[in-house]
Amino acid sequence: MIHEGADYYLPAAVLGAALLAKSPALLRGWRCATVRTVNALLFLPCAGFILASPPTVSAVNRLTGISNFSALLVHCIMTAIACASLLLLEYWRGESGDYARTRRRARVWKTGCLVVIVALAALFALGDVPVERPQDFDTYYATTPFITEMLVLYLLAYVAAGAATAVVCWSWLLDIGRRAAHEPKTAVDRPLRIGLLVLVIAALANIVCGLFKLTAIAARWAGRDWDVLNESLSPFMSASGMMIGVGLLVPAYGPGLIDRVWHPLLGIRALRPLWRLVRRSGLTPGSRMFLPPPWYAGPEQVLLYRMTTIHDWMLELCVHCTDEVRELAYRQAKESGATEREAVAAGLAAMFTAAADARARSAAPAAEQNTLAVAAVRSAEAEDRDLLVSISRALAAAPARTTTGSRRPATY
Predict the structure, then answer these.
(1) Based on the domain organization, do 350 and 279 belong to the same domain?
(2) In the 8-state DSSP scheme, what is residue 260?
(3) Is the domain of 294 the same as that of 230?
(4) Do the beta carbons of residue 198 and residue 120 sit within 8 Å?
């Protein structure tokens, strides 16, 4: 199962970096079985990729003085990865189900994995593998006593774990589909469904690879050379292992990425027209300014900065706001078929655009008009939680309204 190519170190480095990034959470949540399992699923593939690389194979064999000892390590690690994948699925499903049943099933998977690993080590110790085979260990020793049993046990366990993973994930997908017809969707549903689908595909790929490897070994028993099956499938087994990691990590980290990255990015994009107006009109020299976020800031921090700056800009413009402009734009939007929310946002967008122009001319409206405008803004904020986004969309739609509407204020 070890194939040529030192590029195994690259995915190992990626997984190692992810493991280091998650180490603080691991230390804080060490008592949580789910946290331990997630980190195990980062560590085990990382170790597997390192040990499967031919330079490491030779180094391990030299260091231990045992020929092909690295092959045993990789087989045990792959068995542990399959077990950890099933454990994580059990823990996820058990978060809203029967905890006692989850613990029982987890003990079964752990016990089965331990039995297989102990059996693999015992059979390897009883066998004789004097020639180092970093690329074709499985087929080269397919007819060696005890090593034959070791290979068959490993591949059967590998195929069985793949089948169990596919069944668990597919049944879970069906449960989610049935539940979605009666319950509202949550932020976890989409990443979970994507992750489960990836796991199903990866598990089926593992089953196919394992069966093909068994076929190549059986061909050796019959005196035939079908080693090409073993050699050509090794890269696919590595790829399916990475797919399993992706399938498990997407549900674990997908909701957080959606909340902390995707949604803020959408907010930044939605505020772009209003932000351009703010940057174009600017703030007065005496106004409160906020330090811009550093270049490495995340989307959440950038969005917070822009929203705070826009609010400060709106406060600066309050003395220039005229309610007549807002009311005229509101009426015209209603006449053109806009909803109440869209019409309110269109009126405020026109009012703030006119206020920015008025401030550029150093002209201030009457106090009564200013008071009515501020009251309209406060009323709109109470009705629309995403008022800034609504105003920004109204600004973006202003050119279209110019061509389709019958009338519009000259300052909008």
Answers:
(1) yes
(2) I
(3) no
(4) no
Sign of torsion over alpha carbons 52, 57, 63, 65:
positive
* Cβ atoms 337, 383 nearer than 8 A: no
265 within some domain: no
Query: Could you tell me which residue, 110 or 232, shows the higher pLDDT?
Result: 110
Same domain, 47 and 181: yes
Gap between the Cα atoms of 178 and 172, Å rounded: 10
The CA distance from 85 to 47, in Å, is 16
Same domain assignment for residues 330 and 253? no
Q: Flag whether 263 is in a domain.
A: no
Domain span holding position 64: 6-258
Best mean pLDDT range from 27-36, 103-112, 309-318: 103-112
Instruction: Categorise residue 145: left if φ over 0, alpha if ψ from -120 to 50, beta otherwise.
Output: beta
**Residue 268 falls within a domain, yes or no?**
no
Q: What residue spans of 339-386 are helical by DSSP H?
A: 340-360, 367-383
17 pLDDT above the threshold of 80? no
Q: Give the chain's domain count.
A: 2
Which amino acid makes up residue 394? A
Grade residue 288 by pLDDT with cuts at 50, 70 and 90: low
Residues 91 and 58: beta-carbon distance below 8 Å? no
Q: Is residue 147 part of a domain?
A: yes
Same domain, 134 and 18: yes
Band of the pLDDT at 152, cuts 50, 70, 90?
A: very high
Residues 152, 26, single domain; the answer is: yes
* The pLDDT of residue 7 is above 60: no
Tokens encoding 186: 């949550």
Burial 147-180 (b: 16+ CB within 10 A, else e): bbbbbebbbebbbebbebbbebbbebbeebeeee
Q: How far is CA 168 from CA 90, 244, 300, 392, in A?
A: 9, 14, 36, 46
Token readout for 364 is 């201030």
Residue-level pLDDT at 371: 79
Structure tokens, 84: 């950890």
How far apart CA 246 and CA 252 sit, in angstroms, is 10
- The reported pTM is 0.68
3-state helix, strand, coil in the chain (%, to 5): 80, 0, 20
| Domain identity same for 39 and 87 | yes
Helices vs. strands in the chain: H and E counts, helices first: 16, 0
Same domain, 114 and 213: yes
Say how far apart CA 230 and CA 221 lie, in whole Å.
Answer: 14
Q: Rounded to whole angstroms, how far apart are CA atoms 176 and 179?
A: 5
CATH (domain of 110): 1.20.1070
Cα within 13 Å of Cα(176), Cβ side: 19
